[in-house]
Amino acid sequence: MLRGRAIPKTTTDQRLLDRRGPSDWVHTDPWRVLRIQAEFVEGFGLLAELGKAVSVFGSSRARAGTPHYDLAMRITAGLARAGYAVITGGGPGIMEAANRGAASAQGMSVGLGIELPQEQGLNEYVDMGLEFRYFFVRKTMFVKYSQAFVVLPGGFGTLDELFEAVTLVQTGKITKFPIVLVGRSYWSGLLTWLREVAAGEGKISPADLDLLSVADDPDEVVRIIVSAHASGSGAGQDSAGTAQDGAGAGPVLPQSAQAPRGEAG
User: Fold this and answer.
1) Which CA distances in Å does 264 have to 21, 36, 69, 163?
2) What is the pLDDT of residue 176?
3) How far is CA 8 from the centre of its chain?
4) Domain encompassing residue 122
5) Among 58, 59, 115, 181, which is least packed by CB within 10 angstroms?
């Protein structure tokens, strides 16, 4: 309470509205925290009632009419018919193809864009979308609202999403869910290196590779995801075995992936 001379000559609202004041505070970390919080709130609010969904990753450089673009469309059309929403980064290339395939099958097509110099705006096939300033907020949305990841051929961004997903599952930070690599010929070199070098030198467990499935056929991608969810298992086999190209009876999850885990976020 203020009385007499302690009462200011102007009100708080008046001081707020009458002058702009210095603007450098909008570039400080406390203000950035508020922007980050706002992005989380907006993302959670938009996606909270999305239902079951699959995130699809791949190169932004793929062009319409190319094999990988067409493959992405066929996969996501199949996922949409199976009742899954499709989430992508909302940009061009494989992201556009995945959104386009979902939309063609009357599925929910979601785009989570990012502020980048070379990519502006969401592609035209996105039904529900947001654009983020911060990569880590966007990554949280991919993980929190997906029940599977489909990874088509791509570059550093695709590899980043792939290894983050595998790490979160392997360390028990998120509920395990299918991670399907599409294109044996593209991923074979990476899988060989993981098996022979990373696992061979003890940097990862050989069983960690069972967290990955590999497929070439769109129907097989959908089958792996649907079967894994029906059985309650996160990892699945491809038609020739696991990602290790073995022919064992089934994937054996690493001990860390068997630990109790909760919802991301």
Assistant:
1) 40, 17, 30, 16
2) 74
3) 52
4) 51-242
5) 115
Q: For position 95, which CATH number holds?
A: 3.40.50.450
Assigned token pair, 133 = 């300033």
Residue 136: count other Cβ atoms within 10 Å of its Cβ: 10
Which residues of the chain fall short of a pLDDT of 70? 1-3, 12-13, 15-17, 19-23, 25-26, 119, 233-265
Three-state secondary-structure class, residue 127: coil
Is position 38 within any domain? no
HSE of 17, CA atoms in CB hemisphere, 13 A: 5
Identify whether 11 is part of a domain. Answer: no
Neighbours of 158 (CB within 10 A): 18
Mind listing the pLDDT tens digit for each residue in 150-160?
999 999 999 99
Tokens of 222: 């959908």
Q: Transcribe 133-170 into DSSP letters.
A: S-HHHHHHHHHHT-SEEEE-S--HHHHHHHHHHHHHHH
Residue 247 within a domain: no
| Residues listed for the chain | 265
Residue 259 belongs to some domain of the structure: no
How many angstroms separate the CA atoms of 132 and 40, rounded?
A: 9
Paired tokens of 154: 């791509």
